[in-house]
Amino acid sequence: MALLACVLGACKPEVKPQPPPPDPRQAALNALGFTRTEDGWLLNLPEPISFEFDRDGLKPSMEESIAKTAEELLKAEVRRLRIEGHTDNTGVAEYNVALSQRRAHAVAQAFIAHGFNAGDITEIGLGPKNPVASNTTREGRAANRCVVIIVPVDELTP
Fold this sequence. Notes:
Layout: H1 2-7, H2 24-32, E1 34-37, E2 40-43, E3 49-50, H3 60-75, E4 81-85, H4 93-113, E5 121-125, H5 138-144, E6 146-152
Parallel strand pairs: 4-5
Antiparallel strand pairs: 1-2, 2-6, 3-6, 4-6
Helix pairs in contact: 3-4
C-alpha cells in the first residue's frame, strides 16, 4: 500500500521554498553607494552634494558625479527620485527654505539633463529642518548646506 501511495505522488520530497532572487535594482543601488533607510534608498557619495554659503549653484565635480549616477540609475531602471535640499540655521528660516528649494531644483535639473523625466523627480526644500549634522560648529553648518538624493522605497516594489 505504501508503494502504491508513493507511485500516486504522495511521497513527494520535501521542497523548501527558496528566497526570491535579489532585485537587480537594489544591487545597482548598493553598488552606487545607496543605503537602505526607512522610507527609501539614500545616496552616499564619496563627496556629498554640498554648496557654498548662500549659494545654489552646483560645483563642477558634482555635475560629473550626478551625470554618472544618473546614467547608472537609468541603466538599473530606477526612474523616480526624491531630492531634498538643506541649509544651515544661519539667517531667516523662510529665506533658508527658499534657498534649499533652489538647491534641490539645481540637482533635479542636473538629473533631468542626464535623462530623467521632470515628472519623476520630487523636489523638497527643508531649509534648516532635519539637519544632517549639528549646526553648533562651522563644519556642521557646512555639512548642512547640501542636497540629499533618495530613491523612494516604492520605486523598487514590483
